[in-house]
Amino acid sequence: MSLPSILKLDVGGLPVGWIDWQTAATLYARNRVCWETGEERFVIRGGINAEGVQSRLEIGSIVAVADRSHRFERGIPLLNNRTLFQRDENLCLYCGRQFPPGQLTRDHVVPVSRGGDNVWENCVTACRRCNQAKDDRTPEQAGMKLLAVPFTPNLAEYLILQNRRILADQMDFLRTFARRARDARGH
């Protein structure tokens, strides 16, 4: 069975991560789901009992769970090329052209060899040509203009970047959360 991922929230409504339907079913069976939201519902059918009745479990697309998830305790999502390229919408932030992921690279605005860190605020998506032209220099030293300011995605933005099959109700929830988080930061 291929169901989309379920958006897991903490009991206060903070997005925590994506879980598969099997994990969601376990949480329902253990009475760990406190509440749910969203329009999508999935029916999971199980075995047949002695009376010939098939078990049935209905799962929501967004569930709030009473557990202690510390995945984003520091508030900084994991930086990897896939999510970096998605954050930058597969655009080279030097030439502004869009490329398939296989033709993109991670560029450190301040090169690591010059003390730059491997963090969201210092990394941008670059095509191979632009990355080679920039070489081991800052954009200013290379005479190249950076088209956008690199930023750390908030948790909701990161969850959007992580999942390729987001349901409409999940996307609406995460976009609302992302807007509130950006507004709170003053962006």
Structure description:
The protein is α+β, with helices and mostly antiparallel strands and 187 residues long. The protein folds into 2 domains: 6-73 and 155-185, no CATH class; 81-142, Orthogonal Bundle (DNA Binding (I), subunit A), CATH 1.10.30.50. It has helices spanning 21-29, 81-87, 128-134, 139-142, 155-162, 168-185, and strands spanning 6-10, 15-19, 33-48, 54-65, 104-108, 123-127. A 4-stranded mixed sheet has the order 2-1-4-3, with helices on both faces. It has a two-stranded antiparallel ribbon with strand order 5-6. A hairpin with a 5-residue loop joins strand 3 (33-48) and strand 4 (54-65). The protein is elongated and about 75 Å long. The mean pLDDT is 89.
Major sheet attributes:
4 strands, mixed
Q: What's the helix count? A: 6
Strand composition percent: 25-35%
- Helix and strand sequence: EEHEEHEEHHHH
**Helix fraction by DSSP (H/I, runs of at least 4):** 25-40%
Q: What number is the mean pLDDT?
A: 89
Name the strands of the widest sheet in spatial order: 2-1-4-3
Poorly predicted sequence stretches spanning 5 or more consecutive residues: none
How do the helices and strands line up, and which of them pair or pack?
Blueprint: E1 6-10, E2 15-19, H1 21-29, E3 33-48, E4 54-65, H2 81-87, E5 104-108, E6 123-127, H3 128-134, H4 139-142, H5 155-162, H6 168-185
Helix pairs in contact: 2-5, 5-6
Summarize this entry quickly.
With 187 residues, the chain is of the alpha+beta class. Helix content is 28%, strand content 26%. The mean pLDDT is 89.
